[in-house]
Design brief:
single chain; alpha+beta; Jelly Rolls; 23% helix; 40% strand; globular
Length: 197
Amino acid sequence: MGNNQLRSSIAVLALGLSSTVHAAFVGVFGAANANQWFDAAVGFSTVAFTGLPEGTQVTEQYASQGIHFHLPPWGTGNLVQASEVMYPQDGWGLLGAEVIKMTFDTPMSAFAAYFPGSAEFEFYSGATFLYSRLRTGDINNFAGFTSSQSFDRVMMRADVPVNFGVFADNVYFSPVPAPSVLALAAVAGCMRGARRR
């Protein structure tokens, strides 16, 4: 096998692996479509950044919900802001300096956020990169993702240029359903089907 054939084989293999990984994620975009994500996400939790004083640096305030916010290496960012214009969901949001990094105590199957402006969403399982998607838009922008592949870390990155940072209005996340929840959902689906007959 020549070098060119070997390179082509490696490229095809890499393309096949990346498309398999990316195929696990389904996105819903735009505030007008947000209900599609909310209907699909099972048992989601919400972080709205309300109830904290403006300027609070968010790290472990939501640990009881199983989500942790990490500061970037330079140690500043994740600041709570109040603005009804920037954060129309409830007037409160989070400003990250280039990145808002979130990790979860348990594997997740769905994640969504309202956010003003632009953000690139990256998903990881441990140290393994799974998927990314850049979304740009207006003040009340929405991106929601569901995945058949579990993840435990989400990074919201600022689009280039990063001078203005990255913003999150509300974030939503849903754990991988327990087998008993999946079994109940299957039984309920069967019962609905039987009633229709």
